[in-house]
Amino acid sequence: MRAGLGNGAFFYTSSRENFSMHISIITLFPGMFDGMVTSMLKKAVDEHILELELIDLRLYGLGKRRSVDDQPYGGGGGMILRPEPLAAAIAAARERIVSGSDDRQAPVILMTPQGTPYTQTIANRYAKLDSLILVCGHYEGVDERVRELLVSEEISIGDYVLTGGEIPAMVVLDSVVRLLPGVLGAEEGAAHDSFQNGMLEYPQYTRPLMFQGQTVPSVLLSGNHGEIAKWRTEQSEQRTRQRRPDLLVRK
Ligand code: ADE
């Protein structure tokens, strides 16, 4: 299932054909993703739904030291990712995306705090694509020409700064793959998720009926599916109004 390519890239794949989506992740820390291919993602790989490729940017580094970064022109602190290793890694990702005629057009998504705020709407759009290339930024940033010449979209997962783009790439990976047909069963389907209809999800209850003096809303025990659906919609609206009024404005 985890197959090395002998060049620093490795695949999580169960076949090199007939999967619904290919995702390549370009990163200086490919090993960070190993622990993630369990449960839902593992199922997606095992069931030929997802092919995941991790590309080690270091292998496209320059010189004997395989250098990937340098000091900023104009001075100032920090190191900037050079464009050439990223360009070579993106070209390698495109080379190996084999299925489907449009795949060579795979969008290149750069993870950066300067990007467009990531939302469920964007996850839904990505889940319809044949392939995606995610680039994890590092250090103080990437050379501006990478953005201009190589990147199709820039994504931020929130207004805070992380050490690298790996955790943001994991967020995109998880949120996209769970939307691919066949990954979640009908019961656990994504249709009722918070944000999927632009609102937060209604409150959920399971056993026991009584917990620390608190019971379950009686409508949920009524067996009246119409009343239950109505209650859930009302709760969804109320919760969204209280907690995330910005979502209602955006609709
Ligand atoms: N890299 C560092 N911080 C990030 C963020 N908030 N979103 C996306 N990529 C990042």
Describe this structure in words.
The chain has 251 residues and is of the alpha/beta class. Helix content is 29%, strand content 19%. The protein has helices spanning 39-46, 83-96, 120-127, 144-149, 166-177, 225-243, 245-250, and strands at 2-4, 9-12, 21-27, 50-56, 69-70, 80-81, 108-117, 131-136, 141-142, 153-156. The mean pLDDT is 91. Strand 1 and strand 2 (9-12) form a beta hairpin. The protein has 7 helices and 10 strands. The protein folds into 2 domains: 2-177, Alpha/beta knot (3-Layer(aba) Sandwich); 194-250, Orthogonal Bundle (Trp Operon Repressor, Chain A). It is elongated, with a radius of gyration of 21 Å. The longest helix is centred in the last third of the chain and has 19 residues, at 225-243. The strands form 2 sheets. It has a 7-stranded mixed β-sheet with strand order 1-2-4-3-8-7-10, sandwiched between helices. Strands 5-6-9 form a 3-stranded mixed β-sheet. Bound molecules: adenine. The site of adenine has 13 residues, from strand 7.
